[in-house]
């Protein structure tokens, strides 16, 4: 069991889609299932999940997957949201389903929804479990998650083996966790096709939030911006006035939702005993090697 500085047990919340994509891009095309179809992403993801479960031995754990690339509530608010991203090819889409099956066979809860993204499911689960005395370990490299980190939570970039808490968010972005959604709304997030305010880069956004504290205070006191010691202060004030309505909209996109449908209570994400028959069938179908099979069998009991 992973207990933090304050002795609280941890819930590991894993950004599954990120690690499936990484496996898809990094694993060679030499892995095929019993029908001859490629399963390189599943093999890579299975190795990652086994390694994480072996290292962390979490009592509470869930993997969140994205199923809302075009159907998220954010698309209804702002149709260009993530429009720059290509849909996964059918081969990868099929492998995503198999990765979810592997996860469940190992007794790990899968979180997925067609209106909410993986970020929202992780945020909502963490919000709920905090009330049960659990701290969060968010397994992802994604900077957006910084906004979720409370005093005892941490983010774990698994590939780089780097872990940080709320202070680490400030070191990386120059803003505190409660300012991350405002920061991304101001300087934009090209990954999600959120434009931000023209001419406001990361450093300017951080400086503005350090001075005003929040996006709302900044927009309420926008006349003060022209007098700040930042490059192009007058032009920046004009741009903020011009784009005030748009940047409020962008914050609705960059803020992680905490009301996504996740099962309440700490037991909902407690790791269960794996399903041996289902796992054996999957191992056969996916043609996992003896090493992966033995690792998975050893993980059946949490």
From TrEMBL:
One of its GO terms (molecular function) is 5'-flap endonuclease activity. Keywords: DNA-binding, Exonuclease, Hydrolase, Nuclease. InterPro entries: 5-3_exonucl_a-hlix_arch_N (IPR020046), 5-3_exonuclease (IPR002421), 5-3_exonuclease_C_sf (IPR036279), DNA_polI_H3TH (IPR020045), FEN (IPR038969), HhH2 (IPR008918), PIN-like_dom_sf (IPR029060). It holds the Pfam family 5_3_exonuc_N. Gene3D superfamilies: 5' to 3' exonuclease, C-terminal subdomain, 5'-nuclease. Residues 11-272 form the 5'-3' exonuclease domain. GO terms for biological process: DNA replication, Okazaki fragment processing. This is 5'-3' exonuclease. The lineage of its organism: Bacteria, Pseudomonadati, Pseudomonadota, Gammaproteobacteria, Lysobacterales.
């Amino acid at each position: 069991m992973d207990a933090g500085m304050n002795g609280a047990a941890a819930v590991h919340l894993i950004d599954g889609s990120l690690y499936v994509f990484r496996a898809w891009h990094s694993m060679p095309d030499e892995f095929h299932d019993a029908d001859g179809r490629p399963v390189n992403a599943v093999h890579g993801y299975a190795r990652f999940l086994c390694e994480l479960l072996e290292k962390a031995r979490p009592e509470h754990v869930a993997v969140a997957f994205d199923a809302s690339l075009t159907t998220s509530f954010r698309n209804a608010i702002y149709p260009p949201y993530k429009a720059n991203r290509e849909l996964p090819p059918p081969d990868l889409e099929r492998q995503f389903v198999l990765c979810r099956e592997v996860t469940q066979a190992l007794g790990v809860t899968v979180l997925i929804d067609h209106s909410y993204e993986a970020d929202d499911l992780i945020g909502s689960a963490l919000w709920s479990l905090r009330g049960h005395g659990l701290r969060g370990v968010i397994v992802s490299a994604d900077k957006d998650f910084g906004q979720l980190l409370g005093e005892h939570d941490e983010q774990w970039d698994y590939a780089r083996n780097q872990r940080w808490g709320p202070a680490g968010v400030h070191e990386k972005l120059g803003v505190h966790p409660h300012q991350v959604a405002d920061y991304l709304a101001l300087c934009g997030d090209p990954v999600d096709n959120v434009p931000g305010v023209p001419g406001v880069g990361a450093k300017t956004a951080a400086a503005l939030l350090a001075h005003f504290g929040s996006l709302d205070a900044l927009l309420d006191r926008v006349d003060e911006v022209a007098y700040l010691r930042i490059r192009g202060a007058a032009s920046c004030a004009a741009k903020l006035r011009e784009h005030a309505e748009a940047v409020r909209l962008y914050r609705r996109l960059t803020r992680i939702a905490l009301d996504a449908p996740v099962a309440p209570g700490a037991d909902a994400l407690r790791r269960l005993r794996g399903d041996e028959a289902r796992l054996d069938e999957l191992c056969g179908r996916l043609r996992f090697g003896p090493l992966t099979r033995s690792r998975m069998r050893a993980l059946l009991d949490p």
